[in-house]
Write the structure tokens for this entry.
Amino acid sequence: MKLKVGDKAPAINAKDQHGNEITLTQFKGKKVVLYFYPKDSTPGCTKEACNFRDNYSALLKKGYQVIGVSTDSEKSHLKFIEKYELPFPLIADTDQKVVNDYGVWGLKKFMGREYMGINRTTFVIDEKGKIEKVIEKVDTENSTQQLFD
């Protein structure tokens, strides 16, 4: 299943790095940047997270809430957040429910090896819970700028 612009964003009921419940309904009335990334503390994922961090106050001013999602544990997310001073929550999707609901879990190829994992994707969800934008070819160093292109 491939989500597209205009679709209703699938509900989220997951835990963040502190074990706090995160749902999309918490952010009703705000735009949500929901970005899926493969792994904490890897080069591309760090660049992407730090780009959102460096532009976070501008995103907030424009009414956006940023939420990252990977299948890493709460403990891994907490270390990642502390090391890079990330100001936004990261969902620990260890049961792969959110990545499956958003259709970003799939076959990947790296150095001749095939495996299942997260295909880096960013969704912009509008104030009413509809998908406003889908970015599949994420530029990790310019991820914030891609939101406005």
